[in-house]
Amino acid sequence: MPDDCGNPKSGIPRILVVDDEPNICRTCIKIVSGLKCEAEYALNGYDALKMMAENPFDIVITDLKMSSLGGMELLRRVKDAYPDTKVIVITGYATVSSSVEVMKMGAADYLPKPFTPDELRAVVRQSLAENEMQVQNRELMQRKGDIAAVSHQLIGNSPKIRKVITMVQKVAPTDSTVLLYGESGTGKELIARAIHANSPRKVFFAVDCGTLSDNLLESELFGHTKGSFTGAHKDKDGIFALADHGTVFLDEISNISIEVQGKLLRFLETREFLPLGATSHRKVDVRLIFATNRHLNEMVAEGSFREDFYYRIYVYPVNLPALRERKTDILPIAYHFLKQFSRKMDRNISGFDDKAANRLTDYGWPGNVRQLRNIIERAVILCEKEQITLKELALPDGCGGIGQLLEYVPSTNEELKEIKKEIREKAVMTVEKNFILNALVRNDWNVTLAAKQTGLQRTNFQKLMKKYGISPSAKNTGGNLCSTI
């Protein structure tokens, strides 16, 4: 029996091919057979509807012209009865007007015959991905209470985050030193706190090494005695002394000097330290967790990071994936923040509409989870209805947005690199979108002719159209070329 979303409980996507030519049906089934799906065929629209009534399909691939119930009427009936089913229309009589009509009626894609196996697989993959996103969005919207967090608020079920959680679970009960790698905003301190929370250690201290000078960092970590430097009016215990039998998290370890690296190396080897101005060493039981968003091995090669210190902290490295590398986790994390901020602001927001959910999963998230959190917080403030739409998300759509980036003043070198990277990407996206729109306008929105004229394969041309949300229906508005600023 299918579930409420029309998907088989087995979880395997089901595809129905509808064409009055058996050879074409069998060929299409052979083409999609490598996509880990169940595929069947029907020779007319009436048989297709009967099969749908018995067990709905995720995707219907239908010919436009058939002797018994044509593809246009089949599309209308399927979208009425099974709105979540994606319909891909194939035809040997492709025209601009027919493509516009089927897209307006809700077709997921339109593929003129003859098409290549790669072209058909590409549109099927895209439809499967959209289906999966919509099902996930609906399930998250209907889920009551907070999104279940795995291990100290770590949210997600992608292979990469599951690997991180497994590594956390293995190393947490030990006393081993841990080195966390990850881009800014990936949650390195969150992972460090998860390691500490799953260990027997008592207190947790976090230190951002990038915000402290060498002298101040040494004083914070090791403490000092009265009169050891100007302004030292009394003895002060450092974090290492206060964190005895606890955990100390040192973030942005790449920013500390060679001299401080040497002192930390000695502490790692002996767990002894000398407060500034003191004459006797102190010994403590402290576990250290380090983090960086830079490649330390490259810094070692440059001579800006001690090789012996690098190998001493490289005991148990954990790589934190960027958010763009675990797209299936984006919606669960977004719903976690949505529920958190809705409760905090006393708003009744049930979730995201499909377009907003699709935008969230397609966006590159250069600022990772931190950026996602800020975007959702702003969307909750702006939202006046029960669902968040594209308007409230206000995410860059690949066309424009560079002007705002040019006005932004980064505060660190790493932030500068990220902004420069995003500006380059947006400039390329703007050129790409204008390139596709211009080709379509020149060829009266005939995708096949436009692809041929530009020298692109039709499947690659269609991928760029999907990337920028360009559909044949945009012909009515003439398309919208955009500038970079």
How is this fold's topology laid out?
Blueprint: E1 14-18, H1 22-32, E2 38-42, H2 45-54, E3 59-63, H3 71-81, E4 86-91, H4 96-104, E5 109-112, H5 117-142, H6 159-171, E6 178-181, H7 188-197, E7 204-208, H8 214-222, E8 223-224, E9 236-237, H9 239-242, E10 246-251, H10 258-270, E11 272-273, E12 282-283, E13 286-292, H11 296-302, H12 307-313, E14 317-319, H13 330-345, E15 351-352, H14 354-362, H15 368-382, E16 387-388, H16 390-393, H17 402-407, H18 413-442, H19 447-454, H20 458-467
Helix pairs in contact: 2-3, 5-14, 5-20, 10-12, 13-15, 18-19, 19-20
Describe this structure in words.
- The protein is an alpha/beta fold.
- It folds into 4 domains: 14-142, 3-Layer(aba) Sandwich (Rossmann fold); 159-319, P-loop containing nucleotide triphosphate hydrolases (Rossmann fold, 3-Layer(aba) Sandwich), CATH 3.40.50; 324-393, Orthogonal Bundle (Helicase, Ruva Protein, domain 3), CATH 1.10.8; 402-477, Arc Repressor Mutant, subunit A, CATH 1.10.10.
- 47% of the residues lie in helices and 13% in strands.
- The protein has helices at residues 22-32, 45-54, 71-81, 96-104, 117-142, 159-171, 188-197, 214-222, 239-242, 258-270, 296-302, 307-313, 330-345, 354-362, 368-382, 390-393, 402-407, 413-442, 447-454, 458-467, and strands at residues 14-18, 38-42, 59-63, 86-91, 109-112, 178-181, 204-208, 223-224, 236-237, 246-251, 272-273, 282-283, 286-292, 317-319, 351-352, 387-388.
- A hairpin with an 8-residue loop joins strand 11 (272-273) and strand 12.
- Helix 10 (258-270) crosses helix 12 (307-313).
- Residues 1-10 and 146-152 have low confidence and may be disordered.
